[in-house]
């Protein structure tokens, strides 16, 4: 045999600590047909700085769709079927880099996905730029070894093959046709080179992760052995591997035969119904099948179906796939939402999910039994959702499994008339919904009964749109799109339905009130600024108080939310007002000339607006203006002190009762903002930050100019004369 090796690689990605599915880095590969060996090369590395510590990286594998993972141990929505993902751990300890190999023999052809992430994210809120995070990188490469000339086993035709040695197993493949109800594989005349009965192991099917359903038979000392499969995958190549268990130098000759048991589907009347729509407008020709006195096509088809139901192994129902949006599909039944279900043969619906872009959402199947259509109280409609091939023996078994897939069972009855199934990240394939009517006292009781079941099936990016406490986000890895839920207000789980750590409504209201009303502490600073004639500064504080209040009212994760304008606009205005408030306060304390102060006000505000547009979370957007303003203030104070030959500010009362308390409040506020905020205590630690910063401004604002008198509203309202002041000559005149 001719083996061909191929290599596939993708660029490395920076790993993140896990808090939701968007933190997992996804790698998407496609394994070609006739692959006999798959090898993953997993490379993990970290930075060399002191901030890098030992770390454990978790890697998940899955065939057909992204892995469904649950690192946080949260609950999934009800009616959801979840299979644990196949995962391994890679540890980065003293070594800067770790290389791991994962081998998969006879892998299934098609899409394979790898997801990697770091442990659970810490609850402390990190200020960007204050600390340097350690970079953890991960890269996945794929090597495949495939047969360029894999022998084809034709159905019903014996094929003789030779196994040269145990080190070189024999690989063949057979194509499974559509409507194959069963398959039988036989080994005949299995003899060694010494004309003795052989010892071989036969493996049917390919490996799929996290679950693999390969069928294995071992033939020891027998000339013939066989294996029967129910519901093999339709319209797919089935790979068969035969290994010799004998001596190293002994060859084995075998004869292989594969036969299929066909399933005769019941004919559908879809096109006949289309034709019957125009019967009232079309005049039938004499002697035609639709002439008067002869049954119409639809009537004749219905009577034929009724009389020949026993000869059919299934009844097809036509389904139309309607694409709505990205990872959003609705399945519509042409014959109406109600499906007739009987006990003689299963009713089959095809749900097409094989486009390669459907595996990133959630498949939802809902069944609703029409109670008036079933007269038997002990009758049950059993359903099964499976991939690759349908379950055709619902009346004989209830395990809902095919040859290489474990399906998902459903049932509706008079006591429970509705059932729902949610399949997270369904694998790329043709999916089938099989329904059949069963009676507990025997199938003979159900032969004359037909149930009506309303079927709703659709593919959605996020089930229930992640609920009221989650946000559905569309994620992308190169050209592949998939969806995930980002939860808030303490809710968790795949669809944000786990309320184990959820905040109560009272807690949400309290958080909103604290974060918004704490901004009212700017009122004393505004009053002090107006009283001391710092009107520009008072305007900036008013702007900051207003937008900080409504930004935090809009930023709440729960139901206590109010947004007066776009969220991004509110956030930008809040960040801008906060930094500009610090900027104008420190410049006001420097007591520079007015013209220079206002020039610095405008120039600094423009530069701050530009830097916030580049990156709002960067700590230097706040620290940079603060440090630069402090340099200006210290230089101005030194200049005033040298000029007056006295410490500036000169009054000890100014230092003790104003400057030191204001500086202390500002320092405590920065410490709380930088080191104490977590996701759990954010609503009260950030409120403390609001109150401390606003209070410090009221203490730090300098006194008014000496030539400025207090606001004399009473004199201006009562007196009939004005007091004019000449600032330069300090002369007063009464007019």
Describe the structure in your own words.
- Helices cover 25% and strands 33% of the residues.
- It is α+β, with helices and mostly antiparallel strands and 735 residues long.
- A hairpin with a 2-residue loop joins β32 and β33.
- Residues 270-307, 713-718 and 729-735 have low confidence and may be disordered.
- Disulfide bonds join 462-472, 487-496.
Structural class: alpha+beta
Total beta strands: 35
CATH architecture of the largest domain: Up-down Bundle
N-end to C-end Cα span = 115 Å
The low-confidence runs, each spanning 5 or more residues with pLDDT under 50, are 270-307, 713-718, 729-735
**What is the helix tally?**
11
Number of domains: 4
Using only C-alpha atoms, the radius of gyration works out to 38 Å
Strand content: 25-35%
CATH class identity of the largest domain: Mainly Alpha
CATH topology type of the largest domain = Rhopdopsin 7-helix transmembrane proteins
Helix content class: 10-25%
Largest sheet: 7 strands, mixed
Described by the principal axes of the CA atoms, the overall outline is elongated
**Taking all residues together, what is the mean pLDDT?**
85
